[in-house]
């Protein structure tokens, strides 16, 4: 297969597009892979389409290999199934909605849980039919508030979405892990440096969930990872490693002290260091236990007052708190609500009155660091007083723990002993999700089990951003001169450049290109006659085919030049051996 | 490649879907190829998607082979380019329109003339860049008033659309013919019995245009074809073969006669036969020349009175008339307008006052049958009188001819001497169209010509209904038992059925299937253990893979049975030769 630069529908640009924020966007536009049609909506020019198809091909191969079956749902979908799942409303402004000529409501599919659920309901009726894994590679639509970075976050994009259907939790676990394995193979083949990040469930409900993030400074997603092991998680999903319970036999008894004018942790620490200095080290905010009062709004409408106890040197991370409690909503407790609990002394609330067994009747949840045997300075439930040497497990017991405190760089890794956590950025390339029964329940997908009883099917949903992968690979594979494609998704195997004005050069190049094509390689051949070698080489670097072959001056010595786009290494190849050598270079990857 | 019936996402249906109007719809649903998601919107199940991909593959191969370049535009498109071409309005209710979260107007692309035009404008600037042929295979949207017949006329459908860009009419002609040749190859490979039908321009404006119609009684499109040669045309595009001019030396002079009470052609014919009998044969309506008065409404708003003269035995075909005059609109001349022309005597209008040179000043266009030397009875421009023996070319001359008369079965073929026209029905599979400069003008696509002057580019547009082709092939390839796919688009090369309860049969079938797959064939393997042979064979007939291989009883004699789905022919194949023989059967097509 040969494309000729003289006729290829391509014009490279010397200048960056005005709206390009990231390297992949800049280079994919400049090198003629994509063009913007509207905000977040792009056209794929011939080079871009070839890369997109290669990415699709890798994904399709691996999905087929794992035993998933491909089908294709419409993008234009009727409202009803999305009303049944409540996503018609839940999706908010992110959903493109429209009406047909008869006024019936439709949407452009953002993902297809509903349609797959209905398809399985339509065709299957017995546990014997399951598990089944179905997928599609399809154009999807989301009306992003801020489409950005070219095809990295578009409003029309190509996605591979698959769905697993099982009758048992163990089956769902197997389906989930099978997808996880396939995703590892896919992202390895796509040439990504990626992290598998534990995720919270997000708006979709459900339980186990991981994201595959391509490591990239341009990424929109923040996560934390261990400096030592391969632990990685969304901030919402990070678990805190609690200190081991320690014995508290020798600790002094708790004692309340006057701490006037200490409305903040900082003022409290100053008073402690002034009035109650410690022998070993000064008091710090981390020695104090602050109790944050909130109200939980349950889905059934009831309101529940709760206190959250956490070390005084950490703030509550609202996203982590929300993630823990979803679908319950959380808001700060207001003055009026506080006044309704007369035992609460604002600014001086302590465990003495908290916990459902205690005076306030308010449920008391604490950070995992507030572990048995830890010693705290905290409110004495009397204005202007704090309790010192209050020991968890001896002097108070919480009703439970909660992961609500902010995560900081340097926090210990929850998994290994050596590492600490650090913040990193990435591009979400894939998401695997043990959905559970949400959609099956909403749409009535049940099958007969072994004893002839109807059982609700449990589902997993698994996505890969296909068009986004093109940008993400570009983001991770470029230099200042242009793109540097991994071999398996490069638009062509070879970029052959004929230089000079000698007709013999073009004849030799033409012959070589035909032989390479005959050997099954795809070749981009720069056959332009009136373009300088400098421009041709610049275009070749920009376009980013991994091997560049120059047919030019060396021909007099019977050689062509092979350049590795990534390393820049050059070597001469005798013309007679060129087809064999180049085929070998391409095949060995 | 092996798919197993035991796990394939497929359930065949014994009953026809309630809404199925045509065989292809009925069978594609029953055999598990497609499922309806909404009116005119279908999901592609695994079998259907394989056929769709095969059709796409054939089209892609031929488009690439002709030198067209593939790219991909969005389906979700901004309004502005479609406003510039006026299609935002012209398309009427057929366009799916929507707004994004910011209230900006978008549409779902019905075809992409505008986007391709803008892409060429974006990238190219010189005549040296042209011609260029670009195509995409893409999901398209039209809000059909009456979606019908399953995927035959859907609202979401897959289409191949290509566009040619040239600087000269001769270049456009070459581009048009290159597409025509490619289409012939494509439709031949798809196994269609088709007609290439001359078409009028339709709503798109422009000149030369042909449709590729698959011959099918279920087709929505009517056309006429010659019983003898391969002439075929839309009714709008049929040209009338005029009689050869004849000498009129010996004919009697024209003479006006009283013809009282002859408000209709029929009454006139009666009076003629009663009062002016002919020697050789009775008068018929075809001997009379009727003159129909209309008003042309030009796009610039001016109104022009015109008379259309045609043999009295034919009505004006409004579609043919509209097709001839587009974008001019035509309406009957009303009483008031007639009164404004005092020389016109209603019911007795004749050529004596018509023609721009004559008394009425009304332009006079005649049917091609009103040729020089033909003799007519027509209005004498006096109430109650007609002129007899009025000879065209001798007694009157029209301002021109027009194809406005109805076409009838039996009319002589305009091309060959032997044939006559007959009406036929078909499914529009492809449309090729020499568009001209409409879109280039609307969107400002100009390039520099050889002398450095800006010249407007001239375009062709060429479509193939890809998803429709799946239905149309099914429509033309089925019997009472099910589908019968042509080899090149069949979902699998072979359908292997293992029958009986003998484990050895399943082992032998498994081995055979693996070897066939290893030889590069795709196999649908019916490995179901608890399903009767009868059901398996019924499913195989319904699914329609062209070769069905049964591994069963014959195994004891060392043979498997090969059945040709189309002919029903059966033959035994020794197990040892099965892979070689079956590969040969598949490869020879």
Compile the SSE list and pairings:
The structure is a homodimer of 589-residue chains.
Chain A: E1 2-4, H1 23-30, E2 34-38, E3 41-44, H2 46-65, E4 69-70, E5 76-78, H3 79-84, H4 87-90, E6 97-99, E7 105-108, H5 113-123, E8 132-141, E9 156-166, H6 169-189, E10 194-198, E11 209-215, E12 221-226, E13 232-233, E14 255-258, H7 265-275, E15 289-297, E16 303-311, H8 318-325, E17 329-332, H9 335-339, E18 363-366, E19 375-379, E20 385-391, E21 400-401, E22 421-436, H10 438-443, E23 446-448, E24 454-456, E25 458-465, H11 466-476, E26 478-479, E27 482-483, E28 494-498, H12 503-518, E29 523-526, H13 533-543, E30 547-551, E31 559-564, E32 570-574, H14 578-588
Helix pairs in contact in A: 1-11, 2-6, 2-11
Query: Structural class given helices, strands, pairing of chain A?
Result: alpha+beta
The third-level CATH topology of the largest domain in chain A is BirA Bifunctional Protein, domain 2
Oligomerization status of the protein chains: homodimer
If interface size is counted as residues with C-beta under 8 Å from the partner's C-beta, which chains form the largest one?
A: A-B, 51 and 51 residues
- Rg calc of chain A: 31 Å
């Amino acid at each position: 297969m040969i494309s000729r630069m003289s006729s290829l529908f391509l014009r490279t640009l010397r200048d960056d597009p005005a709206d390009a924020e990231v390297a992949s966007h800049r280079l994919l536009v400049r090198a003629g892979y994509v063009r913007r049609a509207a905000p977040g909506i792009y056209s794929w020019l011939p080079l871009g389409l070839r890369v997109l198809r290669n990415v699709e091909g890798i994904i399709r191969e691996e999905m087929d290999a794992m035993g998933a079956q491909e089908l294709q749902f419409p993008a234009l979908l009727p409202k009803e199934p999305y009303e049944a799942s409540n996503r018609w409303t839940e999706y908010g402004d992110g959903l493109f909605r429209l009406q047909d000529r008869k006024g019936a409501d439709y949407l452009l599919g953002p993902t297809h849980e509903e349609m797959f659920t209905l398809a399985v309901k339509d065709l299957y009726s017995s546990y014997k039919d399951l598990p089944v894994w179905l997928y599609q590679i399809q154009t999807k639509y989301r009306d992003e508030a801020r489409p950005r970075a070219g095809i990295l976050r578009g409003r029309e994009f190509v996605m591979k979405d698959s769905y697993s259907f099982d009758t048992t939790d163990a089956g769902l676990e197997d389906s989930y892990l099978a997808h996880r394995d396939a995703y590892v193979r896919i992202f390895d083949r796509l040439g990504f440096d990626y992290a598998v990040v534990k995720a919270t469930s997000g708006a979709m409900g459900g339980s186990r969930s991981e994201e595959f993030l391509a490591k990239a400074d341009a990424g929109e997603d923040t996560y934390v990872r261990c400096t030592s092991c391969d632990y990685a998680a969304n901030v919402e999903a990070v678990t805190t490693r609690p200190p081991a319970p320690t014995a508290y036999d020798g600790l002094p008894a708790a004692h309340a002290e006057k701490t006037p004018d200490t409305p903040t942790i900082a003022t409290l620490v100053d008073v402690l260091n002034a009035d109650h200095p410690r022998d070993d080290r000064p008091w710090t905010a981390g020695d104090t236990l602050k109790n944050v009062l909130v109200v939980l709004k349950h889905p059934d409408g009831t309101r529940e007052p709760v206190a959250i106890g956490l070390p005084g040197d950490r703030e509550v991370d609202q996203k982590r708190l929300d993630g823990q409690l979803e679908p319950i909503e959380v808001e700060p407790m207001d003055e009026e609500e506080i006044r309704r609990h007369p035992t609460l002394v604002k600014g001086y609330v302590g465990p003495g009155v908290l916990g459902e067994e205690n005076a306030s009747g308010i449920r008391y949840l604490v950070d995992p660091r507030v572990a048995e045997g830890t010693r705290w300075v905290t409110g004495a439930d009397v204005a202007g007083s704090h309790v010192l040497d209050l020991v968890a497990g001896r002097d108070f017991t919480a009703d439970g723990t909660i992961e609500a405190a902010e995560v900081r760089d340097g926090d210990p890794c929850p998994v290994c002993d050596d590492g600490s956590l650090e913040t990193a950025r990435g591009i979400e390339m894939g998401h695997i999700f043990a959905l559970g029964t949400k959609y099956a329940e909403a749409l009535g997908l049940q099958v007969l089990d072994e004893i002839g009883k109807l059982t609700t099917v449990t589902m997993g949903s698994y996505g890969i951003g296909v068009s986004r992968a093109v940008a993400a690979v570009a983001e991770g594979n470029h230099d200042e001169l242009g793109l540097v494609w991994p071999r398996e998704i490069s638009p062509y195997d070879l970029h052959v450049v004929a230089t000079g004005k000698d007709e013999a050069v073009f004849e030799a190049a033409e012959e070589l290109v035909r032989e390479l094509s005959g050997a099954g390689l795809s070749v981009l051949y720069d056959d332009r006659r009136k373009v300088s070698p400098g421009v041709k080489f610049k275009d070749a670097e920009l376009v980013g085919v991994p091997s560049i072959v120059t047919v030019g001056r060396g021909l007099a010595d019977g050689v062509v030049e092979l350049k590795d786009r990534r390393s820049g290494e050059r070597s001469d190849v005798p013309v007679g051996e060129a087809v064999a050598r180049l085929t070998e270079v391409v095949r060995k990857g």
